[in-house]
Amino acid sequence: MSASSDDRLAHRLARAQAVADARGLALTTLRRQVYTLIAASERPIGAYDLLDALEPQRGRVPPTTVYRVLDFLVEHGFVHRIESKNAFLACCDVEHPHQGQFLICEACGEAVEIPGAELAQQLAGSAPAHGFEVRRQVVELSGLCASCQRDPHGAP
Ligand SMILES: [Zn+2]
Ligand SMILES: [Zn+2]
Fold first, then answer.
1. What pLDDT does 118 receive?
2. What are the sequence ranges of the domains in the chain?
3. Within the chain, which residues score under 50 in pLDDT?
4. What would the CATH number be for the domain defined by 1-94?
5. Primary place of residence (predicted)?
6. What is the DSSP string of the chain?
7. Structure confidence at residue 89 (pLDDT)
8. Rounded to the nearest whole angstrom, what is the distance from the C-alpha of residue 106 to the centroid of ligand 2?
């Protein structure tokens, strides 16, 4: 891991800790470890990959325990669940709770969060006119990221 990605991770952790402190949420050791693994990953990471990555630090953690931690992190906006991948991505703006919207590369699996609450609000706001009650909102655009467009055969 390069120095700059270490810095970026440290910055994300500090922001998440500050948000947790401000809202009176306990970032327990396991919650922090799971968040750190998600924040360090360029790609959305699934629960079973998280279990494997935790093993050197924690031993075998029961899947239900990790799912509870993931529920907590999603509920409080520290991470987003990428529905189409059944995987998790660290939020880019933990200070402002929002629905996420994402660009997901079909070739390398990288996912990028697109900031901007207006689009999500506009979509959700159109529902009542149809007598519709929104329970869950998923905005995921799939395609090719810039580097996979340049080098379609170089993708892992
Ligand atoms: Zn977000
Ligand atoms: Zn890609």
1. 84
2. 1-94, 98-156
3. 155
4. 1.10.10.10
5. cytoplasm
6. --HHHHHHHHHHHHHHHHHHHHHT----HHHHHHHHHHHH-SS-B-HHHHHHHHHHHHSPPPHHHHHHHHHHHHHTTSEEEETTTTEEEE-S-TTS----EEEEETTT--EEEPP-HHHHHHHHHTSGGGT---S---EEEEE--HHHHH-TTS--
7. 97
8. 7
